[in-house]
Amino acid sequence: MDIPKKAIVYIIAILLIAVPVTYYLATTWSIDSWQALVFWAALAVVSESLGITLPNGMGISVGFAITIASLIVGGPLMSAVVTASGLTFMIIHRQGNEYAHIFNTPIYKTLFNAALGILSAGISGMVYTAVGGEIAKFSVIPVIISLITYIFLNSTIIVGLMSLLNHQSFINMWTGSIKGTLPSSLAVGTIGIIIALACISYGHVAVLLFFGPLLLARYSFKQYVNMRDIYMETIHALNKTMEAKDSYTSGHAARVEEYAVKLAKALKIPHQKVENIKTAAILHDIGKIGIDDSILRKPLPLTQAEYEEIQRHPVIGAEIIKDVAFLKDVADIIRHHHERYDGKGYPDGLKGSEISYEASILAIADVFDAMTSKRPYREPLSKEAALEEIRLNAGTQFNPELACKFIEIMK
């Protein structure tokens, strides 16, 4: 993977910031029990190894509970070392028999993860003591402030890198990250507080008993990801059903998805909207299921009556999916992907800003692939000729801003 120069500079900056923070932690606090350090570090490694990668490249980890617990029990230095150890020595299952670990992970990733742990846990630990928190004693306000500090700092550092790697808006990614992970992070953090109280009252053996609820929380996260995978498989199955009716559009949805997502990312729109566009692109022609096969497969240009019939497919498609909970956000995109910027499109004759950004993006991707694909009644246009058509129709058929951006990224 080629790393953008800005991302390299960012990684170096994070590493440089981590150096004085590490020095300050090591000279201000101490670790009273090395056995306790090994105990917490081992739990951190196990917890981080059970992390779950989300579709946007971010992750959900129950290791945060160990970070909070080790902070309350052992202090900022203990928590920083434990967290950094978990992120450095974790073993992540990729696919099949493939695992990622410290010995096959690029050194820059290992160093970045260690710095991430030191900065997130170390600084939140400093905040904990600064607002009155004491080691091996539970104080509600300091713990809550420290917990929130960790969540926001950790997300900021990770999203900073992810936004540079994916060329997306930091603000949009950060907002999406906080919204998506805050509830689960607060839940896991609460379990960490319970684990700390158990350790303070009953010793390290009690911690192992409370490690069960942590694994249960991880199981819940995993079920969420599995359900999303099933949802995506359902979407692709629906698309294959549609393409089976019209052999000339085989692969059309996949290409439209590629073009639409590329344009959406270039515009740096929020991640969830990119996901909605991706889903809508796959299903945008699902309404053709309700169109007669003789029209879909006709080798000659359509009559006016046949053209009016095929114009029903966006409405049919939107009706098919509008009541499906996990597809409700894409129904309008599908309904309006044949609207025109000048208001002469269908089915609702929307124009200008009345058409959603998502539908306008999909419209450009759909038309571009249609022009560059072979049809029974015409040969495909070249890429250059298709882009010229989009340029000529910017401001009439297409949103001019989006059309210009599409031409820019496709050249």
UniProtKB/TrEMBL annotation:
Limits of the HD-GYP domain: 227-411
Pfam families xref list: HD_5
PROSITE patterns: HD, HD_GYP
Residue ranges constituting the HD domain according to the UniProt record: 249-371
Regions that span the bilayer: 7-25, 62-92, 112-131, 143-165, 185-217
Keyword set, alphabetical order: Membrane, Transmembrane, Transmembrane helix
UniProt keyword annotation of Membrane present: yes
This protein's record includes keyword Membrane: yes
Name of the protein in question: Uncharacterized protein
